[in-house]
Fold:
Amino acid sequence: MSIATRIKELFKGELRLHSLADFDRQLDVAFTGLPTASGVSVTEESSLENTAVWNAITLLSQTLALVPLKLFRKVTPRGQVEARNNSLFDILHTAPNSEMTSFNWREAQMGALLGWGNAYSEIEFDMRTGRVKALWPILPSRVMVKRVERELFYDILIPGTGQTVTLPAFRMLHIPGFGHNGIVGLSPIATHRQAIGLGLATEEFGGRFFGNGAVPSGLLMHPNELSTDAQARLREAWAETQAGLSNAQRVAILEEGMKYEKIGVDPEDAQFLATRTFQVEEVSRIFNVPPSMIGELSKATFSNIEQQSLNFIRFTMVAWFGRWEQVLNKKLLGVNERQTLFAEFNAEGLLRGDSEARSKFYQVMFQVGAFSPNDIRDKENMNPIDGGDQYYVPLNFVPVGTAVGTDANDEIDTNSRRLAMPMKDRLRQAFLPSFEDLVIRLIRAERREMMKHEGKPGWESWRRTYYESELVKLVKKQSAGHLRTYMEAIAVASLEACGQPVEMSAEMSRHIDIQTDGFVTRYVEDAVYLGGDLAEHYDMKENESSIAIDETQLLGDSVASHVATSVGLLT
Structure:
C-alpha cells in the first residue's frame, strides 16, 4: 500500500456518537471554572480578565510569533540553507492555512499552550502527494487524548452536535507543555488557580469598593423606629445620592437626628494595593517572565531591567523555541526527511528592536570572519554593495604556516601582506571618530582662549606666548595617550602580519614618542600659519574629519613602515 493510499484510509477518521460524559469534566471547567478559596471560579478564559495574566500570555505568545520560523536544509560538509522550494517552508514561515498568517497561528497556539498546557492543530495532508498541506488549530477544551492498544488517538468534540471525530496521532500536531507523563501538559491556569483566583478577587473587590463610592459600608442610625417602607426609601435615597464614583466626595445631609457610623475595613488596612502588586509577581513566577515586562516596575532599575530582558530570552524563550522545534520536526517531517531538513526559530529577530545589540553582534561576527558586509546588509533588509561579499579575519587567527615561512630568510607570505592592509585600514577607521573628537576638543579649547583675550591690552604678546608654549602643552596633554594607543595597535597588527613576536620594544616606544611630538608640532604650526584663525578655519565638520583622516593615515603609515624596516622588509 502506498503512502498516499494509507493516508487516504486513515483520513476517513473514526466518526461516532459519544455520550457527553466523556467531556463532562472539560465542559464543566470550560463553562463554570474551577472553584478557589477566594470564592472566584477560574477558567482559562476568565483568567485573562486579570491584567497580569493577560500581559504575560500575550507577551510570550507575541514574542514567539514575532521570531521568524523557517525550514532549513543541511548542506555538506556543514551549514544550512533555507529550504524555500519545500512546501512546508511556506506553511511554517508565511501561512499555515488559507485563513491565517504564521504570526496569528503561532500566537493562538502559544496562547492555548500557556492557558491549557497543550496546543493542538489538525494536520491536513495533500491527498495526492502525502505532503503536509495545512495546519488547523483546535481549541484544547474540545480535545481529549486517549491510548488504544499502545497507540495515541485524539477525540475532538464537534460543537453543537454531541459528536466527536477521532484522529490518529500522525494527523494531530500536539505541542504539550510541562506534564508528568510527557504526553499531555498540565494547565498552568488550573494548577495555579488559587493564586490567579486571588488576583481576580482583588480586582473584583476594587471594583465593588469604588462602585460603593470609594468608602466602606456603614450604618445609618435613626433615633426613632422606622417602618419597613421607610427603611427601604431611606436606603434607596442614600444610594442614589452617595453610591458610585459620580457621587464620591459629596456631602451627605442627615435629617431627624440621624447619624452615620462606618463599620467597613479600610482598604489600606487590608493591604489592598500590596496584594495587587504581589499577585503580579505571582503571575510572573507562574509564566517565568520578569515582573518588569508585565508592568511591575516598583523594584526595577535600568541595569536590572536590561539583565531581566536577557534572562527572558535565554531561560524562557529559548526553552519554548526548543519545545516547538522538536515537535515540528518530529510530526511534520518523515524519518528520512529529518536527515536533511529541520525547522528552526531565528532568535536574531528578538534583537531587531535593539540597534545597539545588533551593532555589537554584527561587529563581532564580522571580526571573526563569520559575516561579510553584504551578509549584514541582507539581515538589515538592505541591498548588497559591490565588493561586499569579502570576508575578513584578524591576523592572529590566520592558520599556522600562512603568516611566515619556516625559513627565517623566506619572504613574508603574500596572503599575510594582503591581510595587513585591511587590518591597518580597519584600525584607522575604528580610531577615526575618536581622532575627530580630539580635534574638536582642541579647537574648542583654542577658541575659548582666543575669545577670552582677543582685543585686550597685550594681545599680541599673549598670542605669541600662547602658541609657543601654552598650546603646545595643551595639545600634547590632550593627545599623547590617544595617539599612543592608536600607534601601538598599528604596531601590534604589523608585527603579527610579519610573523614577529608581539612585543613593544623600547625602540618602538621612542618612535611613538617622536611621532606624537610630530603631531603636536604640525597642529601648532598650522595654527600659527593661519594667524590664529585655526578655530574658525576648521569650524566645519568636514575639516575636522580632514585633519583626523590625514593624521591617522600619516601616523599609521609611519608606524607600519618602522616595523617593516625593523624586521628587514624595508631598507
About this structure: Residues 414-453 form the longest helix (40 residues). The radius of gyration is 37 Å. DSSP finds 17 helices and twelve strands in the chain. The longest strand covers residues 118-125.
